Structures are given as structure tokens and as C-alpha cells.
Amino acid sequence: MQKEYMSAAVALQKLKDGNKVYLNSITSVGDVSPSKRLYTSQNGQAPYAVVVTCSDSRVIPESIFSAGIGDLFVVRVAGNVIDNNQLGSIEYAVEHLHCRLVVVLGHTQCGAVGASLKQNGGYVKFITDEIRSAIGDEKDDVKASILNVKHSVAKICNSLNKTDGLTVCGAIYRTDSGIVDFDL
Question: What angle do CA 131, 56, 86 make, to 5 degrees?
Fold first, then answer.
């Protein structure tokens, strides 16, 4: 018997619906119950979407989308930049876990985007140089974050083999309101 997997369209609607729940929540509403932990421990994970997002502590995909244990395959890196490590994680989720939706979730007030406007040394330079190549001369916080998301979406699309039914899209999380905008 072949296992059925969630389509990208259904997964995207589930994220949008989850964000609506989150906007009025006081606490996280995703299922983190002992029974869900036991179930995923015994049966493995079956996330319905991959979310590539920033390491910023204000951006919590499981909360933002009202998701619980096993619902999202989250890849976090400052500035939601894409390199071979992130591509390998995404490829694993697409090929082995059969996720059909990959969302690059940027956010307003991103420290990594802000840092890219300055000269940086050390290891953070790898991140800020990548962001700088994505945003060019853009100085506006929101516009720069959107350009950075679009750049990461393009890198994913150009690097991974097209899988039937796979959708890669970008979104911006607004740290002030909690709204996720998928219309970039």
C-alpha cells in the first residue's frame, strides 16, 4: 500500500490557517503531547512542509504556524541564507520525507540583514556577504529582507532537482504583528 503525502497546495493552506490561529494565541497551540512524542518516536516524522528560516529567537516556525512535533522540517541559519548544508537538509526532507512544500521564511528587523550593511569579519562574513549579494544597494529593512528571501528561493530552485509536485516559495514574518505574508 502506497503512503499518501500532502500536496504543496494543501501544506501551504495549512501554514496560512495555522498563522491565523497564532495571531490570537497566548501560548503555542501545536501538539507537543506525550502521545504525539511517542507516536513520532515509534513511527518516524512526516512533516508537511520544510521551513528555512533565520536563527532569530523571535522567529519560531512551530508557533507561527501553530504546528506541533513532527509537523515541520525546520532549517535555521542566520539570515536564512542557503549553502550546501541547507540544500542537503532540504533535499533530505524532499526526497526521504516526501515534503512537497519548501518555504523560505524571512522576517522584518533581521539582524543579519542589518549586519550585511556593515563591514564584518570572522565567520559572520560568510553570511553577510551572501546577504549583500542578494540585496545589492537596498537599505530599506523590509525590501532588503524580501530580496534576501527571493535570492534564497532562487538558489533552492536552481540547485535541487525538480520533484513532482514540489513548490518552493518565500514569505516574510512581520515581527510586530505576527502576520506571515506569502505574497512577495
Answer: 55
The 10s digit of each residue's pLDDT in 60-103 is 999 999 999 999 999 999 999 999 999 999 999 999 999 999 99
DSSP state of 2: P
Give me the DSSP letters along 3-65: PP---HHHHHHHHHHHHHHHTT-SS--S---HHHHHHHHHH----SEEEEE---TT--HHHHT
The grid coordinates of residue 29 equal 497551540
Q: What is the pTM of this model?
A: 0.94
- Rounded CA separation 162/112 (Å): 30
- Cα distance between residue 30 and residue 112, in whole Å: 28
The pLDDT tens digits for 143-155 are 999 999 999 999 9
158 φψ region: left (φ > 0), alpha (ψ -120 to 50), beta (else): alpha
What is the number of alpha carbons within 13 Å of residue 154 lying toward its C-beta?
A: 8
d(CA 184, CA 174): 13
| CA angle 8–66–6, rounded 5-degree value | 20
